[in-house]
Specification:
The protein has 175 residues and is mostly helical. It contains eight helices and no strands. The chain is globular and about 40 Å long.
């Protein structure tokens, strides 16, 4: 995947991670080798935080790989930069990582608690609707996995008109 991408490091990271994460949310099996490659690429090509869009994808790779120490370190650096006024996303991404990591561990209630308040602030990561969908679809999947169909239905009904389909496995339970 990485060797066929002609973009720069941030673009390679965001495209690869978004594809893998979205495919898993849609019900496809995990590709551990692809995740490992993206995680290793992130640690070498994007070792320090700086761009909310790139950092979103790095923290997803860290969460998938169970790198709690790496997540904690990146979170501390992003929070320090935010306090100094040097990180436009502020504390949004560290808080977001506190939703992705529990999601990965199957702690869907904790994931919901962390992610639900953030959906109104998705613009803080930049990017397009596709990146914002990563957050919303993860929250939706967490609601479905936690048997909270009413919350899932509220999320679906709050999506903006004309938004693309919702490729999340188990979605029928929310209708």
């Amino acid at each position: 995947m990485l060797d066929r991408h002609s973009g720069g490091p941030q673009q390679r990271m965001s495209d690869g991670v978004a594809f893998l994460w979205r495919s898993e949310l849609a019900g496809y099996p995990r590709n551990p080798a692809a995740w490992r490659a993206l995680y290793e690429y992130a640690t070498s090509a994007l070792p320090s935080p700086g761009s909310g869009l790139a950092d979103l994808h790095v923290i997803l790779a860290q969460a998938v790989m169970g790198d709690d120490a790496g997540l904690a370190s990146r979170n501390r650096r992003m929070e320090a930069m935010a306090r100094e006024g040097r990180y436009p996303s502020g504390s949004y991404l560290p808080t977001l990582s506190r939703g992705f990591a529990p999601f990965e561990r199957g702690d869907f209630c904790t994931a919901i608690e962390a992610l639900a308040p953030l959906t109104a602030e998705n613009e803080r990561i930049g990017g397009s609707r596709a990146q914002h969908d990563l957050v919303e679809f993860t929250l939706l999947k967490a609601c479905l996995e936690a048997d909270r169909a009413e919350e899932a239905q509220r999320l679906l009904s709050a999506r903006r008109p004309g938004a693309s389909g919702v490729p999340v496995a188990g979605l029928a339970a929310a209708h």
